[in-house]
Specification:
The complex is a heterotrimer of chains A (about 120), B (about 170) and C (about 100). Chain A is an all-alpha fold. Chain A is built from 3 helices and no strands. The longest helix of chain A has 30 residues. Chain A starts with a helix and ends in a 7-residue tail after the last helix. Chain B has 2 domains: about 80 residues, Four Helix Bundle (Hemerythrin (Met), subunit A) (Up-down Bundle); about 55 residues. In chain B, helix 1 runs antiparallel to helix 2 and helix 2 runs antiparallel to helix 3. The chains are: A mainly alpha (about 120), B mainly alpha (about 170), C mainly alpha (about 100). At the B-C interface, helix 1, helix 2, helix 3, helix 4 and helix 5 of B face helix 1, helix 2 and helix 3 of C.
């Protein structure tokens, strides 16, 4: 029974999005005017495309985020059962987190976390 | 045919279509976005199999982490609007025939093998039982790989920083 | 979900696997090759989960393998991308066939 409603919800979601975009596209009035395409009211004219190359600092942040994301994935089942296992679980997780903390210290020492 | 099986076929069709689009498209940024949809569809399949924890991990790590990293790497190395060159015809033929041959062999093996599907309910696959077995250190526990994973992540972190800081200094 | 036969899940995962294989052999761009590897790893994960669910519902081994595969995939992707960026700085290309000079 539950999955019938999920199917219905899925269908309604697709139908709603398609209807909103399709009808909006169909009914709206389109008049192109170069003034309308500009950045609104203030600032410089933009130059070039938006596809520019990023600085490598972005990569370092995403990297540190991803590896600690994986750590969280392992911490979650630990946190659920921590109370029933007790001290042993605590020692195991201290070791786990300590090793990753060394990584964080290394990243900090190499200035990977400071901007540029 | 119940509703959940219909959902399964819709979702698996989405996974395959988006996976194929990510392999065949010639715009690299679009390939990353199609891969993202395909991975979300795989998370949906895990949910249909009642593996909620793995589905959450799939969304958290693959969709939220790995794809973001891939998109950043595209921005770092490409003018992302550019088209990739067409693959050589020779290579398409070789790759397609190899993939088709492998698929036929694997499906043939699956067809021949009699899997003993059990219908018993089994234990629940919640995060609680996963955590209980992961932290267990005598009967079939996984505490040793669990600790090793921390070393793996440390090694990856140090290696990446060594490589990337060298780039930054240039 | 109980009505879906195991064979259909296996067909899904093997089709995804060989899509990844095809992409890995036809693409020459390192980042798209990496994406194909991700598809391959995900098809393996589906297989592990399906076997765990259908054949051994009393165990959790498939789930643990998936868990560790995901962790290893994260480490592998981050290192591969670091290497790709480094190569791009050196050769100004990410095409695997043009990166053919070694350091010494």
């Amino acid at each position: 029974m539950g999955s019938v409603s999920i199917l219905l919800l899925m269908f309604c979601g697709f139908a709603f999005a398609a209807l909103a975009i399709g009808l909006g596209n169909k009914l709206s009035l389109k008049r192109y005017n170069p003034e309308k395409g500009e950045a609104y009211e203030c600032g410089m004219e933009t130059q070039g495309t938006t596809w520019v190359q990023f600085h490598v600092g972005y990569y370092l942040f995403a990297l540190v985020f991803l590896l600690f994301d994986v750590e969280i994935a392992f911490l979650y089942p630990w946190a659920v059962v921590f109370k029933e296992i007790g001290m042993v679980a605590f020692i195991e997780i201290v070791f786990f987190v300590l090793v990753l903390f060394l990584g964080l210290l290394y990243a900090h020492k190499k200035k990977a976390l400071s901007w540029m | 045919m119940s509703a959940s099986t219909i959902i399964f076929y819709i979702v698996s069709a989405l996974v395959l279509v988006f996976g194929a689009m990510s392999v065949f498209t010639r715009k690299i940024f679009r390939a990353a976005i199609y891969l993202l949809f395909s991975l979300i569809g795989i998370a949906g399949i895990y949910i249909l199999m009642n593996m909620d924890f793995i589905a959450a991990l799939q969304v958290l790590i693959y969709v939220g982490g790995i794809i973001v990293l891939i998109i950043f790497s595209i921005f770092l190395t490409h003018q992302a609007g550019d088209k990739l060159p067409k693959p050589l015809f020779k290579r398409i033929v070789a790759g397609a025939s190899m993939a088709a041959f492998g698929l036929i062999v694997v499906l043939g093996v699956f067809y021949k093998t009699a899997f003993k599907v059990t219908t018993e309910a089994g234990i629940d696959h919640s995060a609680r039982s996963i955590g209980r077995q992961m932290l267990d250190y005598h009967h079939h526990g996984y505490v040793y790989p669990f600790e090793i994973v921390s070393f793996l992540l440390l090694a990856a972190l140090v290696g990446c920083i060594v490589i990337a800081v060298k780039i930054q200094k240039k | 979900m109980e009505q879906v036969p195991l064979a259909h899940l296996l067909i899904l995962s093997s089709a995804l696997f060989f899509l990844g294989i095809y992409g890995f052999f036809t693409r020459r761009n390192m980042i798209t090759m990496l994406m194909s590897v991700e598809l391959i790893l995900n098809s393996v994960n589906i297989n592990f989960i399906a076997f765990n669910k259908y054949l051994f519902p009393n165990q959790l081994e498939g789930i643990f393998f998936t868990l560790f595969i995901i962790a290893v995939a994260a480490a592998e992707v981050s290192l591969a991308i670091a290497i790709i960026i480094n190569l791009f700085r050196k050769f100004n290309t990410v095409d695997v066939e043009e990166v053919d000079t070694m350091k010494f």
